[in-house]
């Protein structure tokens, strides 16, 4: 059964070893062919040198100049050719006349016979080739032979056996082979070291484990209801999931883009690029109320960017506003019940004492105080959430010595549109007005107006405080910004940001006058229905 290597280091090492071995084998074959070609050329050059030397022998030139060449000349040239073969190690030295007749040859039977090929040296040049002649394959050179008078008399052909070339090549191959083996060993060592390094860089994980971790990471990132952003040390986005894109409106945000380039200027960009990190920071955008956490990542004592998480609390805050309104109404009714019981005890005591004038006067007095606000709210506002909210605010105003008034032009139906947004806006604007007049001298007044018209709902809150500093207007609705001091500063910096976010999300506007006595005005357009569209 074949062995299966699963370790990534083994796979990398074996793959590179196979590639190196194949490359070395191909290279060795190519090198051998090149060395053989070089040796052939060298032997052909040696053959040419022997042939040129032999062609310069006076006896040879003189014999070839006579026509016809006699047997005595053939014998002399055959003897010279034999001695040349012995001295040089050549395979043969053949003298051929212009009539293609051989005058020397290692096989005496071929002397006087014609060669089948034409005389190629008539051009006066040296011709080199590998000759598969009658004596075997040889490195051949053919040079022109001239008579003493300078006329061409024939050619001299000299050959060196290819077996000698092969023997020399075989003698050189072991040295070349050693170099190739050394190179292969060095390559294998480098491959092994690279495989070990990659093993360490992947924390010892194998390929299937890395693939599984990647799948699990993608499934986790895109399956959770919390935005996650990973930022590298250069401030670029390395990981971002779908929820983060939705919360930050980054549908087209590319990976490896800088946060400064993909986010508009504002509190959210400042928070995400803060190197110090954040913990449960509440940031209000135009569409969402976010809880932001940013944690710097440090590995081996070196910074490696940061991980940012975003939680959407928009729906939770809206439901909390409704719950606060309901709870405020309940607490207000409980307080009124307690106060009513105390007053009834006082009236009963006066009646038992028979002091009817004092009892009647007391009834008129309590009817003219607390009953006035209740009657005003019920006469102008029908929405129970808003009534409950304002009753609670009225109780708080009474405790803080503030005169909370509802403007006579207030008109609000039982089921107004965007009641959650109205609850957020009214509650935060009234709280802000209470804080604004808390440090002033009496009388402290806060006036509220809610007018539901055919096209929009207008909320107006005015106070008798010092007003808004004009220099604070550009930052007034930013998360975390506050002009309050002392004990009031600990729970501020979020209310006006929530007001602006609720208004912008509903398609409305927020305006403020600087004072003295700040006036905040919020206009929320009403949604068009088919019936209202026909009326318009």
Structure description:
With 536 residues, the chain is an alpha+beta fold. The chain is 49% helix and 19% strand. The chain contains 15 helices and 14 strands. The chain has helices at residues 8-55, 58-65, 71-88, 162-201, 207-223, 242-248, 259-262, 267-272, 314-352, 356-367, 370-380, 384-400, 419-438, 495-505, 530-535; strands at 92-97, 127-133, 136-146, 152-161, 227-231, 237-240, 278-284, 289-299, 302-312, 403-406, 445-452, 456-463, 509-513, 519-525. The strands form three sheets. Strands 6-5-9-8-7 form a five-stranded antiparallel beta sheet. A hairpin with a 5-residue loop joins strand 3 and strand 4 (152-161). Helix 13 runs antiparallel to helix 14. The protein is rod-shaped, with a radius of gyration of 54 Å. It starts with 7 loop residues before the first helix and ends with a helix. The relative contact order is 0.06. The model is unreliable at 1-5, 487-491 and 529-536 (pLDDT under 50).
Annotation, overall tally of beta strands? 14
Strand content: 15-25%
Uncertain parts: 1-5, 487-491, 529-536
Q: Helical element count? A: 15
Largest sheet, spatial ordering of strands: 6-5-9-8-7
H-E order: HHHEEEEHHEEHHHEEEHHHHEHEEHEEH
Structural class: alpha+beta
Shape: rod-shaped
Radius of gyration: 54 Å
């Amino acid at each position: 059964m074949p062995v299966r290597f699963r370790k990534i280091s083994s796979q990398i090492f074996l793959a590179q070893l196979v590639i190196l071995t194949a490359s070395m084998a191909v290279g060795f074959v190519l090198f051998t062919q090149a060395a053989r070609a070089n040796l052939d050329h060298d032997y052909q050059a040696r053959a040419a040198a022997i042939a040129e030397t032999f062609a310069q022998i006076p006896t040879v030139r003189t014999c070839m100049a006579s026509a016809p060449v006699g047997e005595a000349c053939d014998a002399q040239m055959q003897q010279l050719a034999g001695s040349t073969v012995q001295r040089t190690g050549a395979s043969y030295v053949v003298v051929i006349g212009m009539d293609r007749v051989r005058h020397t040859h290692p096989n005496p039977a071929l002397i006087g016979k014609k060669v089948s090929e034409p005389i190629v040296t008539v051009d006066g040049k040296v011709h080199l080739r590998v000759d598969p002649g009658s004596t075997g394959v040889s490195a051949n050179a053919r040079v022109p032979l001239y008579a003493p008078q300078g006329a061409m008399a024939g050619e001299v052909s000299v050959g060196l056996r290819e077996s000698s070339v092969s023997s020399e090549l075989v003698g050189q191959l072991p040295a070349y082979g050693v170099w190739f083996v050394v190179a292969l060993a060095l390559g294998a060592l480098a491959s092994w070291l690279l495989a070990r390094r990659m093993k360490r860089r992947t924390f010892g994980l194998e390929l299937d484990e890395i693939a599984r971790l990647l799948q699990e990471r993608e499934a986790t990132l895109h399956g959770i209801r919390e935005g996650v952003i990973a930022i590298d040390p250069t401030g670029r986005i390395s990981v971002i999931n779908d929820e983060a894109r939705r919360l930050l409106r980054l549908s087209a945000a590319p990976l490896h883009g800088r946060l400064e380039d993909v986010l508009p200027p504002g509190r959210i960009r400042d928070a995400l690029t803060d190197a110090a990190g954040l913990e449960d920071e509440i940031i209000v955008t135009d569409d969402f109320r976010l809880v932001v956490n940013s944690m710097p990542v440090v590995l081996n004592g070196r910074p490696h960017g940061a991980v940012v998480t975003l939680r959407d609390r928009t729906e939770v805050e809206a439901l909390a506003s409704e719950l606060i309104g309901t709870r405020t109404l309940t607490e207000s009714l409980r307080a009124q019940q307690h106060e009513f019981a105390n007053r009834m005890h006082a009236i009963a005591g006066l009646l038992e004492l028979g002091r009817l004038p004092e009892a009647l006067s007391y009834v008129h007095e309590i009817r003219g105080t607390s009953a006035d606000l209740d009657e005003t709210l019920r006469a102008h506002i029908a929405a129970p959430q808003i009534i409950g909210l304002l009753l609670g605010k009225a109780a708080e105003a009474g405790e803080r010595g503030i005169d909370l008034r509802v403007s006579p032009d207030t008109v609000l139906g039982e089921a107004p549109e965007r009641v959650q947004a109205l609850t957020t806006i009214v509650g935060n604007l009234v709280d802000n007005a209470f804080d604004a007049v808390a440090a002033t001298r009496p009388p402290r007044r806060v006036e509220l107006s809610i007018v539901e018209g055919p096209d929009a709902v207008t909320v107006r809150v005015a106070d008798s405080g010092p007003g808004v500093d004009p220099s604070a207007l550009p930052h007034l609705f930013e998360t975390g910004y506050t002009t309050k001091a002392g004990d009031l500063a600990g729970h501020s910096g979020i209310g006006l940001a929530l007001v602006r976010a609720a208004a912008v999300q509903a398609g409305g506007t927020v305006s403020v006058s600087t004072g003295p006595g700040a006036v905040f005005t919020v206009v929320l357009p009403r949604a068009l229905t088919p019936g209202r569209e026909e009326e318009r």
